[in-house]
Amino acid sequence: MVVAEVGDIGDLLSAVESYDPDIVVLEGQSQIGHAQELTSIGAAIVVVGDVDSTTRWICTTQADVRALVHCDDPEEELVEAVRRASDGTGYVSPGLSGPLLRYMRATLPRHLSVVPTHTPLTSRESEVLQLVRRGMANKEIARRLSLSEKTIKFHVSNVLAKAHVASRAQLIASAAAM
């Protein structure tokens, strides 16, 4: 359910305070300059934009961006992104995944390893990493490996920590930089 539509950061912050939404959908070009204020809103963010704007969101903000949707994708992609952001699994639409990985590959330093860590991954963590790199959600990975979703979250958390990254998108990007 849409509870508010706003045009600027002041209205956005007021709407968030009034409605306490779980998800905020932002147009890719909007509010990047106000990323500091957005880090404290307490809602997951879905960014809709082109490759350039969504990449800037990932690289320049500390806001809780959980999903990225290309502005030319069908609306079903936005619905899926909101669902995945809501359940915490995250989402990158097909319209952005290839270009975003190419951009990250071109801009990240070449010295990154698949998982830049001094602590080796367990065989299960490696298996989970491969499925994360395929874009699978925790629920899908849990079904595939016949494990609980809580166990998968634990393994993903360990992989993120060992890779020294904060998000699945950064993990995929660092793995794709090879």
In a nutshell, what does this entry contain?
The protein has 178 residues and is α/β, with parallel strands linked by helices. It contains 9 helices and 4 strands, in the order H-E-H-E-H-E-H-E-H-H-H-H-H. The radius of gyration is 16 Å and the shape is globular.
Descriptive tags:
single chain; about 180 residues; alpha/beta; Rossmann fold; Arc Repressor Mutant, subunit A; 2 domains; 4-stranded parallel sheet; 4 strands; globular
Description of the structure:
The chain is an alpha/beta fold. The protein folds into two domains: about 1-105, Response regulator (Rossmann fold, 3-Layer(aba) Sandwich), CATH 3.40.50; about 110-178, Winged helix-like DNA-binding domain superfamily/Winged helix DNA-binding domain (Arc Repressor Mutant, subunit A), CATH 1.10.10.10. Helix content is about 55%, strand content about 10%. It is built from nine helices and four strands. The protein has helices at about 10-20, 35-40, 50-60, 75-85, 95-105, 125-135, 140-145, 150-165, 170-175, and strands at about 25, 45-50, 65-70, 90. Strands 1-2-3-4 form a four-stranded parallel sheet. Strand 1, helix 2 and strand 2 (about 45-50) form a beta-alpha-beta unit. The termini are far apart. The relative contact order is 0.11. The mean pLDDT is about 80.
